[in-house]
Design brief:
This protein has a three-stranded antiparallel beta sheet, with helices on one face. It has a single domain, classed as Phosphorylase Kinase, domain 1. The protein is globular. Helices cover about 35% and strands about 25% of the residues. It is α+β, with helices and mostly antiparallel strands.
């Protein structure tokens, strides 16, 4: 299974910013970071194929509860 992150290039995101995000994900491999697989330009959207992580995003967790730095590290590790 993979996850697809869809980024609209029409909503103020510059091509340079999108390219920088792709390069950062491609060049920074870590067991603590979701693995970037590939990217595709689909119309005015950039589709990023990434490792699927069941359970939602860290952003979702941080929006629901307050966590200390050590707790955020533990969530990221798991």
């Amino acid at each position: 299974q993979v996850a697809i992150k869809i980024m609209s290039l029409e909503e103020g995101m510059s091509e340079e910013l999108a390219a920088n995000e792709i390069l950062a994900m491609r060049d920074n491999r870590s067991p603590n970071i979701v693995t970037y697989l590939d990217s595709y330009l689909v119309g005015a959207e950039l589709w990023l194929a990434m490792e699927f992580m069941d359970g939602g995003t860290l952003f979702d967790v941080l929006g629901a509860v307050y966590l200390e730095e050590g707790q955020i590290g533990a969530v990221c590790r798991e």
